[in-house]
Specification:
The chain has 138 residues and is mainly beta. The protein has 1 helix and 8 strands; from the N terminus they run ββββββββα. Strands 1, 2, 3, 4, 5, 6, 7 and 8 form an 8-stranded antiparallel beta sheet that branches.
């Protein structure tokens, strides 16, 4: 389990065992609830190499409708994703790419209060996944 601070309060994320394709689901509790799905992927610049990590709110794929419980903050559900490009430091802007914007289920952008919390959740889960000792085999 990982615990981290967000602008909305502390969030706890419990990772599942990696599935057959190496993906891990993080079940959230605390200031947010729902599921974050994290998997190894390719960065946009190097489509032929698995050198990035994709974290998606409530979905097994950034291209599919969410199948898992969406991440909720104060009762409002959100979807979106980010990609952590491992060739760069997480501290630089190009170390992260946001291929799917943070929106609610009515396709409205996440409000100013929720957006930093959702970003923190995605980044914490992606960073935890990339730091796993079994990451090279995932």
């Amino acid at each position: 389990m990982i615990t981290f601070a967000t602008p909305s309060g502390p969030v706890r994320a419990v990772p599942s065992q990696a599935d057959a394709v190496g993906a891990v689901r993080y079940m959230l509790t605390g200031a947010a609830s729902g599921t974050v799905y994290v998997t190894a992927t390719s960065s946009p610049a190097r489509w032929d190499r698995f050198d990035a990590v994709r974290a998606t709110l409530g979905s097994t794929s950034a291209r599919e409708l969410p199948a898992e419980p969406l991440v909720r903050i104060r009762g409002r559900a959100y979807q979106g994703s980010t990609v952590r490009v491992l060739a760069y430091s997480a501290d630089v802007p190009w170390g992260w790419q946001d291929p799917m914007p943070l929106v609610d289920t009515d396709d409205r952008p996440a409000p100013e209060q929720a957006s930093p919390t959702l970003t923190a959740i995605l980044r914490a889960c992606a960073s935890d996944y990339a730091a796993r000792s079994d990451f090279p085999s995932l």
